[in-house]
Amino acid sequence: MMVSLGATLCLVLGVVSCSITTNYYQELINQETKKALSYDLPTNNEEFKEGVEAQTIVEYGDYDVVIVGAGSVGCVLATRLSEIENLSILLLEAGGEENDFSQIPAMFLYHQFSDINWGYYTTPQKYSCLGTNNRQCIIPRGKVIGGSSAINALIYARGGCKYYDKWAALGNRGWFCKDVLPYFKKSENSQIHGDEGYHGKKGFWNVEYSLPSSTLFNNYINGGLQINQRVVDYNGVNQFGAAKVQSSIKRGKRQSLGTAFLANARKRSNLKVVTKALVTKIIIDQQSRVTKGVEFVTNNQKFHVRAKKEVLVSAGAINTPQLLMLSGIGPKTHLKDMKIPVIADLPVGENLIEHPLFNVVVRTNYTLPDTNMSDLVELYLQGFGPLTKALGVDGIGFPNTDNRRQETPSIELHFSPPFDIDRTIFQRAMNFNTTIGDTFINKINPKSDLNIFVILLNEKSRGRIWLKSNSPIDFPNIDLNMFEKQEDVDSLIEGLRYAFNLTKTEAFEKLNATLLEVPICTNFDKDSNGYLECLIRNVAVSMYHPCGTAAMGPDREKFVVDDTLRVHGIKNLRVVDASVFPLPVPGHTNAAAVI
Ligand SMILES: Cc1cc2nc3c(=O)[nH]c(=O)nc-3n(C[C@H](O)[C@H](O)[C@H](O)COP(=O)(O)OP(=O)(O)OC[C@H]3O[C@@H](n4cnc5c(N)ncnc54)[C@H](O)[C@@H]3O)c2cc1C
Ligand SMILES: *[C@@H]1O[C@H](CO)[C@@H](O)[C@H](O)[C@H]1NC(C)=O
Ligand SMILES: *[C@@H]1O[C@H](CO)[C@@H](O)[C@H](O)[C@H]1NC(C)=O
Ligand SMILES: *[C@@H]1O[C@H](CO)[C@@H](O)[C@H](O)[C@H]1NC(C)=O
Ligand SMILES: *[C@@H]1O[C@H](CO)[C@@H](O)[C@H](O)[C@H]1NC(C)=O
Ligand SMILES: *[C@@H]1O[C@H](CO)[C@@H](O)[C@H](O)[C@H]1NC(C)=O
Ligand SMILES: *[C@@H]1O[C@H](CO)[C@@H](O)[C@H](O)[C@H]1NC(C)=O
């Protein structure tokens, strides 16, 4: 039916214009995927070097509000604030613009190997990522209008409303479920028939299903039902259960917050957006602790801009703590080591939270039919098909793994049916070493192996971000420190065992499902927890959800911002991004950041 709709559209538009667009996209995909395979990620901010080292500082003028970073949150802030007509706003973004390629959901891994990703890796890890090159997991972060929402996997999962009561329980007024729900609804334009009272239908940010679902989607849902999972609206009344993924896409294309929010707001005369502009320092008066403005670099020049009311930092969970520390806000001893004058001694960069992810590969006797790119592109242009999904994922689940009464889930599953993927990009994105690459990734048969990603949601381990030097040219050090705590390993083992149970259901037996083994940890008994622990420490990777590095709470010994997101002890400075999450989100971080 959809193909014939496409054919009709082409007839209406004229066959020629239709095939020109199709050709353009095919060529684009061809070029960009090739480029990505050989693209070297940067290792520092050298592109801004000349500006950083400039001797003169050019005055940029006065604005009421200066926003640092046009990522998920920065785009929303700039849009909402510029609704106030007499407020002048400057939005500074280090990256450039989104493009037609970045809008294609299925290309999501390729987006990481281009100049719209900062290019971070962890420091060599002790307890996890042991099967990666140099024990360094990759940490993609959007460096572009829309920020990480311009390169992410598009899954819309708030984490369940009740979870936010835990934020409030830490002493944060105004962050109960009942307080945040109206904001989730305000931004959302939901096309799904979700639970009554939980979804917005008039917001700027589109949420829809990627259609059609994969051929094997019903096996996933039925398998879940066979082990007593309900089918739920996981952004609704009850998060526990299995579901179709609610996606941040609009007619199949990526809905970053840049597209959903900023694109329109940019036309307003009271909002100025500058791209390719790296903010290098927040200017705070040492005596009065009043924030005065920021210094930034663009076009090989250094600028100073005054903020008459406030500076809002929304540079994301990696760059925000870096910028705060470069500006004198952070752990005192570390700042002294870096020869940075201390303005406020706060635990910036600590409490780095990350969800670990383990990929269970399941061999089936299903075979994905051959497709050709021209057909896929045509479907995509109509808003449908495999190109509208990241990694093919269309099933999601939040099982109650230990069958106790949990308040919020500790495990999340993604169901990724067989889809056409170049294993090379998969390997690059996981940064697995050549042994794992050759003996595991290259053994995956994309046409008939499906993936169940098992994700830990309530991790107790915490990492840390700290500076390499006092220069904004250097990347910060990022230690995710996943699985330092044994209970995190134990919880994920439960999750893996749940996934194994799922593959043993009748619905999966129909596919003759068997596990594809990672040929490591061979000295362990395959049924033992020790075996699974060994696998986890070697091949679990990061889920790309860093947060918590400028956490919100009342006590300035433990937290960086108060419940109005003001930096403790500093005037006119707020952090407004995923850095402020005090606890891991039992879901994904994009919607939570946008609240
Ligand atoms: C590959 C990937 C997949 C993901 N998948 C999902 C998913 O499926 N669902 C989900 O909900 N979440 C997902 N996430 C996480 C989610 O996208 C992020 O949590 C969210 O975008 C964070 O928003 P933010 O505003 O805090 O930061 P960001 O969106 O990262 O924004 C920070 C912005 O600040 C800019 N910036 C940084 N430093 C400076 C500076 N010094 N000067 C100027 N500008 C600066 C950056 O370039 C960027 O544009 C994923 C993330 C990634 C990377
Ligand atoms: C904007 O206008 C409102 C209402 O007219 C006023 O209260 C406020 O002070 C003005 N703000 C600025 C920045 O001029
Ligand atoms: C890759 O990692 C595995 C698991 O830690 C290890 O056994 C193997 O020696 C590593 N290979 C290389 C080439 O580093
Ligand atoms: C792709 O399929 C279409 C029809 O479905 C066909 O016209 C076209 O020739 C095919 N292209 C390739 C490269 O096989
Ligand atoms: C897996 O199934 C077994 C056998 O039914 C059951 O005992 C166990 O609790 C299940 N494990 C999980 C994590 O669901
Ligand atoms: C089921 O899978 C096993 C192991 O991969 C294989 O040996 C067997 O032939 C398969 N059976 C069917 C019916 O596909
Ligand atoms: C796949 O395997 C199952 C179980 O062995 C079998 O019933 C089914 O017919 C097989 N399907 C195909 C396409 O081989």
Could you please describe the fold and organization of this structure?
The protein has 595 residues and is of the alpha/beta class. The chain has a domain at 123-136 and 205-257 and 354-469 and 476-542: Glucose Oxidase, domain 3, CATH 3.30.560.10. It has 18 helices and 24 strands. Helix 4 (72-81) links the parallel strand 1 (57-68) and strand 2 (89-92). The longest helix is centred in the N-terminal third of the chain and has 24 residues, at 15-38. The two termini are 38 Å apart. Mean pLDDT is 95; it is low at 1-8. The structure holds flavin-adenine dinucleotide and 2-acetamido-2-deoxy-beta-D-glucopyranose (NAG) (6 copies). One 2-acetamido-2-deoxy-beta-D-glucopyranose (NAG) binds next to helix 15.
Question: Which features does this protein show?
Answer:
alpha/beta, Glucose Oxidase, domain 3, 7-stranded antiparallel β-sheet, 24 strands, 18% strand, disordered N terminus, binds flavin-adenine dinucleotide, GMC_OxRtase_C, flavoprotein, flavin adenine dinucleotide binding, signal, FAD
